[in-house]
Amino acid sequence: MTDSLREMQQAAEPRLRPAVVKPGARTEALSRFLRNGTWRRTIPAGRAGPGSPEMDVVGRVTCERVIDGLWFSCTLEQDLFAGGEKLLTWKSRWVAGWDVAAQEYRAAGFDSNSVAAVF
């Protein structure tokens, strides 16, 4: 087969182009959850488990759209204090969005206690 014949054959073949997915109404509906913020609370003694002390909590969340705006990702951090002493910083990452293939919302979260949750 000559080069020119090969070029004509390739030009005649249909070309498949991958679909470009853009955020739609279902994705935009999640925008109300894209909030950055902070909080301060007191957890009563025993609320975090038997024998746990009263704890002060200072937390923050930062959210952003990721992967061409199709998903949102939030990073959460929460410092726990008891008697003025910092006990730990809990951290978590959440990703959520509209799954076009499954036709439903999907979310997953992971935290510094080595816990994963899929919704």
TrEMBL record:
It comes from the Archaea. This is Uncharacterized protein. It comes from Methanoculleus bourgensis (strain ATCC 43281 / DSM 3045 / OCM 15 / MS2).
